[in-house]
Write a structure and sequence with these properties.
By secondary structure, the chain is α/β, with parallel strands linked by helices. It has helices at about 20-30, 40-55, 75-85, 110-125, 140-150, 165-170, 190-195, 225-235, 240-255, and strands spanning about 5-10, 30-35, 55-60, 90-100, 130-135, 155, 175-180, 200-205. The two termini are about 15 Å apart. The chain binds zinc ion.
Length: about 260
């Protein structure tokens, strides 16, 4: 069974002590590729270094809405320069993690929208998919994506929306990222939505070190947990884990343009 973790923060210092062990364990487990994402200016170089040196790791570069107060106009310029320098590099796979977070009320929505817009423009300009963080902001996200109509679409990571919202993203060519959150028994609405998602619209992810799955409560999440997350989600979808793994890998390959 071959798996791709489409969303992990393996560059975070949570993994400083054992990153190499995690990577070699992933290889044994069949987690053959993973996408590590930029979240603020400070980690863009770290993410790129990891992608450059580790065969399993691919980089997405972007500025995350949660760190809004840290972002400066020059960081957007620096991001653009980097994307332009690295354009066409096989280890650069997307613009991300970008998006809108309306759950945290202190984050200025107008500024979030501006920064989201600028980064979607970069995805369009450099012909890259976009990896999205969307929390309580589906309506604005969908409206913004409809304006851009990205050729390469992307992934709505940690999707927890409704059936109707899923349909809108799918119409726009986006895949829905599923991970640990849906493995919890109390996530009943998510269970119902997931059970109805078309298989060609889902990709697996861990969002590690966050979003611990139900089988590893309260501990650091890791791309090593992806096979068990796949098992749990396949059960909710009433299909075999192999079938879900294959679909997720095919869908990720399609989005990232991998063979
Ligand atoms: Zn993330």
């Amino acid at each position: 069974m071959t798996l791709i973790d489409t969303h992990t923060h393996l560059d975070f210092d949570d993994f400083d002590a054992d990153r190499q062990t995690v990577l070699s364990h992933c290889k044994q487990l069949g987690v053959e590729r993973m996408v590590v994402l930029g979240v603020y200016y400070r980690n863009l170089q770290r993410v790129w270094n990891l992608a450059r040196t580790e065969p399993q790791v691919y980089a997405a570069l972007g500025l995350h809405p949660i760190y809004l107060d840290e972002h400066r106009p020059e960081h957007l310029h620096a991001l653009r320069d980097r994307l332009s320098t690295l354009a066409g590099h096989p280890k650069l796979c997307a613009v991300g993690e970008i998006g809108l977070d309306y759950y945290v009320e202190s984050l200025d929505r107008e500024r979030q929208l501006e920064i989201f817009d600028s980064q979607l423009q970069m995805a369009a300009e450099f012909d890259l998919p976009a990896l999205l963080h969307v929390r309580r902001s589906h309506a604005d996200t969908i409206a913004t994506l409809k304006r851009f109509k990205l050729k390469r679409s992307g992934i709505v990571h940690a999707f927890a929306g409704s059936r109707e919202e899923a349909r809108e993203y799918i119409k726009l060519g986006f895949k829905l990222g599923l991970g640990g959150a849906a493995t919890w028994p109390q996530a009943l609405r998510m269970h119902r939505v997931i059970a109805e998602l078309p298989l060609d619209s889902v990709v697996l992810e861990t969002d590690s070190p966050d979003m611990a799955p139900a089988m590893y409560p309260g501990v650091r999440n890791s791309p090593e947990h992806l096979p068990q997350i796949c098992d749990a989600l396949a059960k909710l979808m009433d299909i075999s884990p192999e079938r879900l793994a294959r679909a997720s890998t095919d869908n990720a390959n399609e989005i990232f343009g991998w063979q």
